[in-house]
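Worked example 3 (structure in, sequence out).
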């Protein structure tokens, strides 16, 4: 028996995606930058994927930059925008991020902070949500970038992306209007356009990712969280966003990201996006919601010492994060793994020292609570039988761990 409940970490490549990709590993192996027919065939496949992504996100094809995944896409977005800002003589550009961002955002911003960028964190409440009012209060004349993830990968909290985007758009419009209405000799430098970026990796299969509707300027995502291949992702950057490359070479992707295009990966990414419209039907979403509710009901009825982290009613339907009092999550994860169940913990061990989740810390958990937390994330193929088996085995394993103490 095996149960995979770690879909927020990665998903299997779907059969339809795999079948779409396979020819591009062998028969259709051309380099999309080559001018001969082999290259042209590969380029047509890349263009087809761009068209699919364009329609899904409501962007233009030349606004899509393929990368090796969301981590690279986030690095390119943040570093490229700041690099551009500095080239425009904005001496101390400011970035605002939430305090529960993905490490690829936080660590990139810390690196930029060491290069003279001002970094401000937007605190979340106990549900893992930021406030539009708090964001507006932090924005000043040096702010060039706001990066707020659409859905948190640990607790599933869904940020008010459209409201945040609308507020930033209004500030940009008001700043530009005031500048244009000022007398020419008193205008000074045109105000910065504040770019609104979101990492939408966890949101794509469940939420509206129309960039115009959400007032999003830049969006990043990866393939392997949506039943596509690993090693492929994208940054979608609106045409009015000024960004410079951080990888140099042959000038692919409009000069924004050099390197030979990963044609099989791009084909798979496009197909995984195309397949979402087949999944995102009310019946499919209700199935995931019902499974989550069943899981919550089962574990809540079995144990008095289980506490849900965050507010699952305000979170993505496939992610449940909870803690078990006086149970070490690492030990629990290992014991469940030995029973054939794959989940993840709400804490992380580094080689040098024990650490715990910055996300759980941000919503108010102490170190012991965070180290007692696990994340269960459901997927397309998850079943009620698996939920029932998981709850029973979880109870068995917890009792075993307690008896060993």
């Amino acid at each position: 028996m095996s149960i995979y409940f770690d879909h927020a970490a990665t998903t299997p490549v779907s059969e339809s995606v795999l079948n779409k990709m396979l020819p591009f590993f062998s028969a259709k192996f051309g380099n999309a930058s080559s001018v001969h027919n082999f290259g042209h065939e590969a380029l047509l496949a890349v263009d087809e994927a761009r068209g699919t992504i364009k329609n899904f996100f409501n962007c233009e094809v030349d606004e899509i930059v393929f990368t090796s995944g969301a981590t690279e896409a986030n690095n390119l977005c943040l570093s490229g925008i700041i690099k551009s800002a500095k080239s425009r003589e904005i001496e101390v550009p400011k970035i605002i991020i939430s305090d529960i961002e993905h490490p690829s955002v936080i660590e990139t911003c810390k690196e930029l902070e060491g290069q003279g960028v001002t970094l401000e964190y937007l605190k979340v409440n106990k549900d893992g949500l930021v406030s539009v009012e708090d964001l507006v209060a932090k924005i000043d004349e040096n702010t060039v970038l706001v990066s707020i993830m659409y859905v948190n990968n640990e607790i599933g909290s869904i940020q008010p992306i459209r409201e945040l985007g609308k507020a930033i758009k209004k500030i940009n419009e008001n700043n530009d209007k005031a500048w244009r209405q000022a007398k020419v000799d008193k205008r000074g430098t045109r105000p910065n356009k504040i770019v609104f970026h979101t990492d939408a990796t966890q949101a794509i299969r469940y939420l509206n990712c129309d960039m115009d509707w959400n007032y999003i300027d830049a969006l990043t995502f990866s393939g392997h969280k949506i039943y596509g291949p690993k090693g492929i992702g994208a940054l979608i950057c609106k045409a009015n966003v000024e960004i410079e490359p951080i990888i140099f070479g042959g000038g692919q992707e409009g000069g924004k990201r050099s390197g030979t295009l990963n044609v099989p990966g791009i084909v798979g990414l496009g197909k995984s996006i195309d397949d979402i419209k087949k999944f995102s039907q009310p019946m499919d979403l209700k199935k995931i919601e019902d499974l989550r509710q069943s899981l919550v009901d089962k574990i809540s009825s079995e144990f008095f010492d289980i506490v849900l982290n965050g507010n699952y009613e305000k979170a993505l339907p496939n992610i449940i994060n909870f803690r078990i009092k006086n149970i070490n999550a690492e030990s629990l994860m290992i014991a469940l793994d030995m029973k054939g169940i794959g989940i993840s913990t709400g804490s992380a061990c580094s080689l040098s020292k024990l650490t715990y989740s910055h996300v759980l810390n941000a919503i108010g958990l102490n170190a012991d609570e965070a180290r007692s937390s696990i994340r269960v994330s459901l997927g397309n193929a998850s079943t009620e039988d698996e939920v029932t088996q998981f709850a029973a085995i979880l109870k068995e394993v917890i009792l075993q761990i307690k008896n060993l103490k």
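Notes: The chain has two domains: 15-278, 281-404. The chain is about 40% helix and 15% strand.
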